[in-house]
Amino acid sequence: MKWRNASLRRRLLIWLLIPMLLVSSLMLFEVRSNAVHSANQAFDRALLSSALAIADRVVLIGGQIEVDVPYVALEMLTSSAQDRVFYQVSTAQGEFITGYEKLPPVPEKSMPLLEEPVFYDAEYNGERVRIGALSRYVASARMATRFHVLVAETTGTRESLSEDILARAAVRQFGLILIAALIVWFGIGQGLKPLVRFEEALNRRSPSDLRPIQHDVPSEVRHLVGSINHLLKRLENTLSTMQRFTADAAHQLRTPLAALRTQAELGLREENPDKLHDVMEKLAASTRQTSHLANQLLASARAAPEGLAGRPFTRIDLGEITRSVTGAKVPVAIERGIDLGYEGLNGAVPIMGDATLIEELLKNLITNALTYCPEGSSVTVRLVPEADDAPFVKLVVEDDGPGIDLEHRKHVFERFYRVSESGEDGCGLGLSIVREIALRHDTRIRLNEPEDHSGAIFSVRFRLAPDENAN
């Protein structure tokens, strides 16, 4: 099992046990050092006592040092059968007097040997030994001299004692870790119970239940629940848009498709070429209208504020888009005998938005003007700065056509609303799409009647994007 797929309980347990094991290892290392130090302190006292007992039996006779080593001086060190004891008495100049001649000497760093005893570790006859060294004066009536006493003991008992202390400490440490692991394992299980209940609550929900989750969870999980609620909200909006699109498509396409079928069946039965040509013209017109309706339905779904186009806004050039879309519509305007032109800003006009939706907005406004204006009319697209110091720009589409009566003006932005006496082919979605795209860009579409002539003026106000080089 990969680490990223491991259970949360196992992850928490591992992240807890690894530091505990590291800390326990450091503590055991310290325990070992303390155990060795304590064992040395205890046994070094016995070495010192033996060295003092031997030093007390050193005498100076006729200028020669003589020693009568007492049995009790060595007996006090032989409490353990596994350890052996060695001793040596020598002059301050290193001349051997009695004992074991090959005992390791006092290290150079501890020389010269004075009144204070010295203890050091060494190796003698292939065994590790602990040696205690002592220096004393011996005097007679005519002279005085210094001598050294070395008492050595193998370290078996010391090592056994320190290892025993370490083993007991290790057992306690690992026992504590085991108990902590068990407590954590079951404790995490209890701590995760709210998540289990949360999972059960989600499993009980039906696929259509996209209400926000109102469930008590630990504070660490609240952000996750918030993200899930945000996702559910977006899913609800998306499903709402899809359902609306499906309902609209089913409602609006049923009649045109039935008409297409009827006209096709009439064409199949018609034998007169002239009448067949008329049927085919009607069929082609109905096909264009149905295609236009389908495209408008798709554009409406994309433009809905809660809809399918959930892409984040980017920095776009409104001036370039406006000039490009206006130029693309010029051939259509020429074909209908309408003067289409652009006025206003010629440089870059940066805003934050969706370029595809802005193009759709402008196409619908221009197409709407070209559709309802008679031959000889003029349509003008403008980009106008709102004021010198205001961070806004206004997109205006103005025409001098018949205009929109007051009774229809408050309804023109509704879905599928059409002016009944207009006589133009349309599906009533163009201006509603413009309104929804404007809402997605946090603005509004306004309809103003010109004061000095007939026609209509549609305007959308956009906030300029901040300068990229500004701090």
TrEMBL record:
**EC class (word):** transferase
Q: Which UniProt keywords apply?
A: Kinase, Membrane, Phosphoprotein, Transferase, Transmembrane, Transmembrane helix, Two-component regulatory system
Q: Does the keyword Electron transport apply?
A: no
Q: Per the UniProt record, which EC number(s) apply here? A: 2.7.13.3
**Which locations, inside or outside the cell, does it occupy?**
Membrane
Q: Which InterPro entries match?
A: 2CSK_N (IPR013727), HAMP_dom (IPR003660), HATPase_C_sf (IPR036890), HATPase_dom (IPR003594), His_kinase_dom (IPR005467), HisK_dim/P_dom (IPR003661), HisK_dim/P_sf (IPR036097), Sig_transdc_His_kin-like_C (IPR004358)
Histidine kinase domain sequence ranges:
248-466
- Which SUPFAM superfamilies does this entry report, sorted A to Z? ATPase domain of HSP90 chaperone/DNA topoisomerase II/histidine kinase, Homodimeric domain of signal transducing histidine kinase
Checking Pfam families in the record gives: 2CSK_N (PF08521), HATPase_c (PF02518), HisKA (PF00512)
Q: Which reaction does it catalyse?
A: ATP + protein L-histidine = ADP + protein N-phospho-L-histidine
**Domain HAMP per the UniProt entry, residue ranges:** 189-240
Listed GO cellular component terms? Answer: plasma membrane
* A GO molecular function held by the record: phosphorelay sensor kinase activity
Indicate whether Metal-binding appears among the record's keywords.
Answer: no
Question: PROSITE patterns from the xrefs?
Answer: HAMP, HIS_KIN
* SMART domains reported in the protein's UniProt record: HATPase_c, HisKA
Q: What is this protein called?
A: histidine kinase
